[in-house]
Amino acid sequence: MIRDHASTWFLIAVAGVALYLSYIIAKPFLNPIFAALVLAIVFYPVHARIDSRLRRPNLAASISTILVIFVIAIPAVFLGISVTRELREQYEWLRHETATEGGLNPYLMHLMEAPLRYVGLYIDLSRFDVRPTLLGWIERASSYLVTIGASAVTNIFSFFLSAAVAFFTLFFLFRDGHKTQQRIAAILPLTGEQARKLITSVHETIIASVQGGMAVGLAQGSLTGLAFWVLGLSSPVLWGLLAAMASLIPFVGTGIVWGPATVLLLLQGHWIKAIFLVGWGAAVVAQVDVVLRPYVVSGRARMHNLLIFFALLGGMRAFGVMGIFIGPVVIAITVAIVDMLAEVNLLSPTTQSQEDEIRGAG
Asked: With CB atoms 3.0 to 4.6 Å apart as the test, which of 137, 141, 240, 300 could cross-link to 221 if both were Cys?
């Protein structure tokens, strides 16, 4: 018996070390792996229908993976081409305008004359050295934009590597996902009902997170497009679609769309429109995420809104974009395990014997 206990503890120790080393190996790819898991759960009903018709796992998984790639890639390519065209037009306009003023800085200083003259009616600006301050802001903003551009270029390779890992993983999840799920359920030291409840909780939470993201994207994209249309900006539908996609970016969100549009309005001298767009984006569009996503996710995941709120906020801080899904899943697993522990405690031997005595007396 002593030898059996020693063997068990040795295996547990080795398993712990092996799992830790496996985590280190997989750590750079955890986000694309989890993204593949989300896609596999969302598109599994489609894959199941393809697999039932073909009865060839490899072919069915290949077709399903290619289908997902097209569903994601085609809209992204279309939006990328359209946004590039719009940005090129705005760049040509800005270059033409600044050329007439002798450069970007003189052009911006010319735009600032009217608002500074208005502010000067109420505040004595002669005590402030406004021009050097404004030029310093412009130079810092320009260097910041250059830094963002350089970072985006260096991250392109990382993005394509992550995409390759995600879709490669997706293929095997489609092909072997059901067997892997059964194997995990068999390994877990849980009853069949407990394992089913835990897996169902994870599945429902991921679906709820996807539905919450779609609801928020639709609402924020519509509100952003509406603002662009009211203000007379070009391509409100296109920018609304881009805002819907940008809603998935944590701590930036749709601001990456209406922020540059605000700057463009300022460059054109439309100060009232710029102020309206900032107010609309910050007070209306940005708050949709705080209100709508927890409500949608909590409905299907069957968790309290406050739990979902902190799961989303903490998940995004800890894991970035994928934290939108990882945070609620972690909380869902925690809640499911606590419920199981409560059930086990309620059905302890003492409680069970008392229930048996009551039934016998009855």
From this structure: 240
